[in-house]
């Protein structure tokens, strides 16, 4: 019995598939968007290659390689394609599969050199049954890599995309990138654009894990994690990471932190929905969060470090946790007219020095918990039209050096408006 028949995961390609290798294909493909950068010729893979152990297919300098639609290339090997030069463009609209399984590398495409561009077309599938569907690793050279996905990139284990190089990744509408753990894992500066109706998901681990370097993320689709962080930025020395979640964009975690950052100077700009038990966890200084009019942040925002600035024009709802929990100093919250900060616990809890709250909207809790629990120094400015209300104490202060300036409404249904 052949290897193909033994493996219960293997799918024998349809005998009805028609594979055409011709000059005509090379002429047509550039107009489909696959060969637009191919100035040095095109190699077209047009034969099915299934189920044989082998040495990797080597990609040479200055060539564009194209895998046709209706072509399946699969191997029982740790690498299917391996680079051996710079300025390579690889376009896939077929099926590239690695049937290696278990907690080992089963790399479909291994990139070791500079100026590499991978385009995975709308019918393209890049799938490993193990770890690392696509691997960018130039051994510390931090080369620039480009990945444009309109199809499916999938790892049954870890790392659908694994990069130790500078990565520019675009996930187009209706495209999918998924893995069990650490779907996109990077160790250098990373730029990701996830377009409308595109998805990047993980089952158990982080969805986007940036171990080192900065992250620039623009999301208009869906980023989700089942059991861990959706976005993890782990480099404490990284400066100026930016997360932009556009209207209709969804970033969610079912059971952990949605955004976990140790980066200095993180900027979060939200017009969509950020959702989790803990929506944003900050362990770096000088973080700025701007929640726009259409923005919804559901789940606790927690900052441990100083210099956090939160501008809210939409809705922040801590649900069962605090809406905003601050333990670092010199934090500023501005809640605009028409905006809401609420929770069944404290809507805002601050223990750092130099806390400033400017409220023109609504800050509320529906329980006996204090709406604002405040220790440390600072000032609350409840401006005209501003409402701070609770069933319990609206403001609970445990320090003497507190200033409250009220031009709006501070109210409690059954306890103290201000308790000190």
Structure description:
This protein has 420 residues and is an all-beta fold. It has a 29-stranded parallel beta sheet that branches. The longest helix is centred in the N-terminal third of the chain and has 6 residues. The protein is elongated, with a radius of gyration of 26 Å. The termini are far apart.
Instruction: Compute the number of strand runs.
Output: 45
Low-confidence segments, ≥5 residues, pLDDT <50? 1-38
Averaging pLDDT over every residue, what do you get? 87
As a percent range, the share of helical residues equals: under 10%
Write the layout of secondary structure elements.
Elements: H1 3-6, H2 23-28, E1 42-45, E2 57-59, E3 64-67, E4 72-75, E5 79-83, E6 88-92, E7 95-98, E8 107-111, E9 116-120, E10 125-128, E11 134-136, E12 144-149, E13 152-158, E14 161-163, E15 166-171, E16 176-181, E17 184-186, E18 190-194, E19 199-202, E20 208-210, E21 215-219, E22 222-225, E23 231-233, E24 242-245, E25 250-253, E26 257-261, E27 267-270, E28 273-282, E29 288-291, E30 296-303, E31 309-312, E32 315-317, E33 324-326, E34 332-335, E35 340-343, E36 348-350, E37 355-359, E38 362-365, E39 372-374, E40 378-382, E41 387-390, E42 395-397, E43 402-406, E44 409-412, E45 418-419
Parallel strand pairs: 1-3, 2-5, 3-6, 4-7, 5-8, 6-9, 7-10, 8-11, 9-12, 10-13, 11-14, 12-15, 13-16, 14-17, 15-18, 16-19, 17-20, 18-21, 19-22, 20-23, 21-24, 22-25, 23-26, 24-27, 25-28, 26-28, 27-29, 28-30, 29-31, 30-32, 30-33, 31-34, 32-35, 33-36, 34-37, 35-38, 36-39, 37-40, 38-41, 39-42, ...
């Amino acid at each position: 019995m052949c290897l193909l028949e033994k493996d219960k995961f293997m799918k024998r390609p349809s005998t009805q598939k028609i594979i055409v290798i011709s000059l005509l294909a090379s002429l047509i493909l550039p107009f489909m968007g696959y060969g637009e950068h191919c100035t040095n010729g095109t190699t077209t893979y047009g034969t099915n290659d299934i189920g044989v152990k082998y040495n990797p297919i080597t990609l040479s300098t200055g060539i564009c390689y194209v895998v046709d639609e209706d072509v399946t290339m699969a191997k029982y090997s740790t690498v299917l394609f391996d680079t051996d030069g710079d300025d390579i463009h690889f376009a896939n609209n077929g099926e590239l599969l690695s049937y290696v399984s278990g907690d080992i590398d089963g790399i479909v495409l291994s990139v070791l050199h500079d100026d590499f561009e991978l385009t995975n077309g709308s019918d393209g599938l890049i799938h490993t049954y193990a770890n690392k569907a696509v691997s960018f690793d130039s051994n510390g050279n931090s080369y620039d890599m480009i990945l444009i996905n309109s199809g499916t990139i999938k790892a049954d284990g870890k790392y659908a995309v694994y990069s130790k190089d500078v990565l520019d990744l675009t996930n187009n509408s209706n495209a999918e990138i998924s893995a069990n753990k650490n779907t996109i894992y990077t160790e250098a500066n990373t730029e990701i654009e996830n377009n409308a109706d595109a998805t990047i998901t993980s089952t158990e681990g982080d969805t986007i894990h940036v171990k080192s370097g900065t992250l620039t993320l623009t999301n208009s689709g869906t980023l989700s994690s089942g059991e861990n962080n959706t976005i993890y930025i782990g480099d404490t020395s990284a400066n100026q990471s930016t997360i932009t979640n556009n209207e209709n964009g969804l970033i969610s975690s079912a059971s952990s932190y949605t955004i976990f950052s140790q980066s200095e100077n993180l900027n979060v700009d939200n017009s969509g929905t950020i959702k989790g038990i803990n929506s944003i966890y900050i362990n770096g200084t000088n973080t700025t969060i701007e929640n726009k009019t259409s923005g919804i942040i559901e789940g606790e925002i927690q900052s441990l470090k100083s210099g956090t600035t939160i501008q809210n024009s939409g809705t922040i709802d801590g649900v069962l946790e605090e809406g905003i929990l601050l333990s670092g100093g010199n934090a500023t919250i501005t809640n605009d007219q028409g905006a809401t900060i609420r929770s069944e616990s404290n809507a805002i809890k601050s223990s750092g020095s130099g806390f400033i709250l400017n409220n023109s909207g609504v800050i509320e809790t529906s329980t006996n918990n204090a709406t604002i629990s405040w220790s440390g120094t600072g000032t609350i400015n409840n401006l005209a039209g501003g409402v701070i209300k609770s069933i319990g104490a609206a403001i609970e202060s445990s320090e003497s050096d507190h200033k409250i300036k009220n031009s709006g409404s501070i109210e409690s249904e059954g306890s103290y408006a201000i308790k000190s």
